[in-house]
Automatic annotation (TrEMBL):
Membrane topology: Single-pass type II membrane protein
Biological process per Gene Ontology, one example term: UDP-D-xylose biosynthetic process
Keyword vocabulary terms for this entry: Decarboxylase, Glycoprotein, Golgi apparatus, Lyase, Membrane, NAD, Signal-anchor, Transmembrane, Transmembrane helix
Record domain UDP-glucuronate decarboxylase N-terminal: where: 5-78
CDD domains (alphabetical): UGD_SDR_e
Role this protein plays: Catalyzes the NAD-dependent decarboxylation of UDP-glucuronic acid to UDP-xylose. Necessary for the biosynthesis of the core tetrasaccharide in glycosaminoglycan biosynthesis.
Name used for this protein in its record: UDP-glucuronic acid decarboxylase 1
Boundaries of every NAD(P)-binding domain copy: 92-386
Entry cofactors: NAD(+)
Catalyzed chemical reaction(s): UDP-alpha-D-glucuronate + H(+) = UDP-alpha-D-xylose + CO2
Subcellular location: Golgi apparatus, Golgi stack membrane
GO molecular function, one term: UDP-glucuronate decarboxylase activity
InterPro entries: NAD(P)-bd_dom (IPR016040), NAD(P)-bd_dom_sf (IPR036291), UXS-like (IPR044516), UXS1_N (IPR021761)
């Protein structure tokens, strides 16, 4: 796979170089023909100096064009650091074309590592990583983690899994397969090549928690047959698999229990509360609140999460670590806040409560602070403004976009729409 990519890269570079060389050769030829032609006539008329300056007049703009072309080849990518062979890692990110995965890709690429993104594009998009396509340190593989993968890497960030309720409930069996068979495949790969694996687990392993805030010691309160079980239990067993591989096979594992995260590149239609409220406010639609709106959530900005994931991966902490922002707000407060930031005249509309919707969610991040020296630093307002800017642009790009995250009351009873 790597050698194929190399061949592709080399041939792409060759093709570009060939085009450039051909352009230069044609130029030189045209210049010499022109030169000869003019030479013969003008030598007698105006003298050699005049001819040369005429040629120069024609050739200079063409040289300029070649310089621009060369610049466009070299300035195409965001700047990346140079890392020596010793420090540069080969890193696999499963689910790397998704929301979190693409931001993690950006960070690791800019830090100078070699990044391979594996994604089946169920909820991810090529657009999220398109700015790296063709870069010599980057590779994008269309692959489903439910199938085995053979690749040489040093670290694996295993993020592949649908993450929002409408997405993971769309095909619960596939969600279970991705989190179980997919995780087994990645752990098998980690074992074979001696790589360290970080699992993107979730605060959903705590279910509808009876303790508040939730620390890593809490075992959770999950309904094993509820509408969310495919995801919650899928992630719980994925954690179990990590520790079985660690104990039995000596695989180095890291487990991040990620709490609600938001930012640019979230899906427009994934039903998560931040994207719903922003889109509704931007489009002048009512902001839909399920239940009384007194249920609480705590949201972290995506760059904080990415820094936490990298810190955890490179730490010695093999037990689970919560990564989230402990600043807690009610859903109603979020609705008001977003409405004000957007400057929208939208109303707030109350709908019936969603099934198994956790009433409280707030991470205890003492462990991350103590053992990773990590804590969120992006203020809520700053993060929300970035997300609002992103969604505003998305709506602008889609000139005919009429998408409004409509509440579907008929499905609420079956637990298919809820706050996450
Ligand atoms: N965003 C959050 O608030 C949050 C919270 C807790 C946990 N997480 C976890 O973080 C990870 C990333 O979440 P996200 O918000 O970026 O979601 P996302 O849906 O944007 O990204 C998930 C990615 O995984 C890919 N994927 C899904 N199934 C796959 C399969 N079988 N094979 C290969 N690729 C597959 C999707 O196409 C997508 O690109 C997930 O594992 C999720 O459970 C996210």
């Amino acid at each position: 796979m790597v050698s194929k990519a190399l061949v592709r890269l080399v041939s792409a570079v060759h093709r570009r170089r060939m085009k450039l060389l051909l352009g230069i050769a044609l130029l030189a030829y045209a210049a010499s023909v022109w030169g000869n032609f003019v030479n013969m006539r003008s030598i007698q008329e105006n003298g050699e100096l005049k001819i040369e300056s005429k040629i120069e007049e024609i050739v200079e703009p063409l040289r300029e064009k070649i310089r621009d072309l060369e610049k466009s080849f070299t300035q195409k990518y965001p700047p990346v650091k140079f890392l020596s062979e010793k420090d540069r890692k080969r890193i696999l990110i499963t689910g790397g074309a998704g929301f979190v995965g693409s931001h993690l890709t950006d960070k690791l690429m800019m830090d100078g590592h070699e990044v391979t993104v594996v994604d089946n594009f169920f909820t991810g998009r090529k657009r999220n990583v398109e700015h790296w396509i063709g870069h010599e340190n980057f590779e994008l593989i269309n692959h489903d983690v439910v199938e085995p993968l053979y690749i040489e890497v040093d670290q694996i960030y295993h993020l592949a899994s649908p993450a929002s309720p409408p997405n993971y409930m769309y095909n619960p069996i596939k969600t279970i397969k991705t989190n179980t068979i997919g995780t087994l495949n990645m752990l098998g790969l980690a074992k074979r090549v001696g790589a360290r694996l970080l699992l993107a687990s979730t605060s959903e392993v705590y279910g509808d928690p009876e303790v508040h805030p939730q620390s890593e010691e809490y075992w959770g309160h999950v309904n094993p047959i509820g509408p969310r079980a495919c995801y919650d239990e899928g992630k719980r067993v994925a954690e179990t698999m990590c520790y079985a591989y660690m104990k039995q096979e000596g695989v180095e594992v890291r487990v991040a229990r990620i709490f609600n995260t938001f930012g640019p590149r979230m899906h427009m239609n994934d039903g998560r509360v931040v994207s719903n409220f922003i889109l509704q406010a931007l489009q002048g639609e009512p902001l839909t609140v399920y239940g009384s709106g007194s249920q609480t959530r705590a949201f972290q900005y995506v760059s904080d999460l990415v820094n936490g994931l990298v810190a955890l991966m490179n730490s010695n902490v093999s037990s689970p670590v919560n990564l989230g922002n402990p600043e807690e707000h009610t859903i109603l407060e979020f609705a008001q806040f977003i409405k004000n930031l957007v400057g929208s005249g939208s109303e707030i509309q109350f709908l019936s409560e969603a099934q198994d919707d956790p009433q409280k969610r707030k991470p205890d991040i003492k462990k991350a602070k103590l053992m990773l020296g990590w804590e969120p630093v992006v203020p809520l307002e700053e993060g929300l403004n970035k997300a609002i800017h992103y969604f505003r642009k998305e709506l602008e790009y889609q000139a005919n976009n009429q998408y409004i995250p409509k509440p579907k009351p008929a499905r609420i009873k079956k637990g298919r729409t809820r706050h996450n």
